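Posting here for the record, re: C2E.
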Amino acid sequence: MEKSLDYTLNELSAKNAELKSMKYALDQSSIVGITDAKGTITYVNDTFCNISKYSREELIGKNHNILNSHYHPREFFVDMWRTITKKKVWKGEIKNKAKDGSYYWVDTTIVPFLNGQGKPYEYVSIRTDITPQKKAQEEVYHLAYYDLLTGILNRNGLYKSLEKLLKNADEEVAFLFLDLDRFKSVNDTFGHKTGDELLRAVAERMSELVERDHIISRYAGDEFIIVLRKSSQEEAVEIAQKIINSFSIPFILSDEEIYTTFSIGISLYPSDGASKETVIKNADNAMYLAKKKGKNNYQLFTNKLKEQNKRKSILEKNLRKAIKYEELHLNYQPQFDLETKKIVGLEALLRWNHPTYGPISPGEFIPLAEETNLILPLGKWVLEQACQQNKKWQDEGYEPVHIAVNVSVKQLQQFDFVASVSQILQKTGLNPKYLELEITESILQDLACLKHSIKKLRALGVSIAIDDFGTGYSSLSVLYQLPINSLKIDQSFVRNLNSTNRTSAIIKTIIDMGRNLNFYVVAEGIEYEDQSLFLRENHCHIGQGYYFSHPLSSHEVQKMLVKRH
Ligand code: C2E
Ligand code: MG
Ligand code: MG
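Prediction output follows.
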């Protein structure tokens, strides 16, 4: 930016004359202005007046900072003055404010003119208008770093702001990870246009609540991240609470009152993570906890969550090798005909015996396997083991029963899932009618994609059961459309069963509906005799639960199977 002007006095007067004639030439084309040593404007040419929209009279005698746009930080001008007072030429791009409030950019060269003592007595600035280029640059920048829909920073913009902020942070920085609750249902009910409007309104309401020097960004879809500079946990909690409170007021969009809430996770840099990635991930984890705790609340990233994450990442690593190291096996839980009390089926349940943690519940490792896609090899392994075992029992002369295998949505979504089931059936020699695949009810929301696979599986001769029925909000019309064999009433209904309460009415309705649609109705989680009696009296076909039998090893279950005569 600087150029040294180390001239002798003689040279200087020659230079001054030269510059003066240059000034005349430039006057015709460029924006030229002259200030005295204090910055008071003493001369402006017509182009200067045109671009600044001030008349010559309005400018002369005023300090040059009349044009200050307050875009540049103070240091910018300090540096400029330091340079020109040292008799050096300063070059730079300045954003100025015109009289009507509009802004313009000028590429500026300021030349100090020196008096007889070699001191600057006036400064000549020669400028060119670069507003169009700057506007284009700003637009490109805006597109890259701002969210088109809401106008707040996008993920790239957030990362860019964080680079600077975290590098210079000498105090804690708080991260709030916010996820709208049930945003999908707003989209589904009111349409995407209203969904977009809601996101815009949400960003606006948040911006009003958070002071300007903090960062608000749209991280993805309905996820937002707020970063509070120099902030304690208490301050973060205060903001989170303020946001939650403010969302108890509905949004009015296209004449509809829409209520929406946030689940918020909070983590701190650097105490909860030494990089932006880790703090964001941890705030996200805390947000998941908020979801689990019933949504519309905030949670802090705690030591307990830290421990859970550690365990999760260790389990994930170990799960990859669990098949190879033979740490997995299947248990089988018998299913009984409630009328005849005979065993009619076995549900295969995966077990993992970890070398250091001991037995790990599928409730913990199945979701992990689903997140990491490890469910694909695991699911295949389970299916093959279960079919092989069932065929073995049949070959050994036991009365055939069906084997029920739980299938995850990830497996069903594989284009070759049906082919791999068919291949396993061929390889093990099990008749398809003795295989039942259990899919959870929540899968049915993705109906279009699954209908085809389910039909093909049925065509193979395999049965399909809807697991955990009653919890996944599937409508009757969905059940009509699918060639399903059985409904498994979710355990929670059976657990709360009491002959006079509402749950018993719900169970009766599910059984009636299932029977009318020609499904087998299965009740799981039966622990007591009165539950079993109630279900039998209300014509539920099949029962499964600790009352009859816990899940058993293959040796134990074999003792319960009946030899063919
Ligand atoms: P699920 O398919 O609904 O399986 C029934 C669960 O209820 C089993 O838990 C079983 O042990 C438990 N249970 C059975 N009777 C009773 C009872 O009377 N009272 C109570 N309180 N519980 C009972 P488990 O084995 O822990 O499995 C949990 C879930 O993990 C399963 O729920 C299933 O969704 C999933 N899972 C298990 N094995 C596999 C698998 O091989 N593949 C997939 N994708 N998921 C599996
Ligand atoms: Mg099941
Ligand atoms: Mg179930």
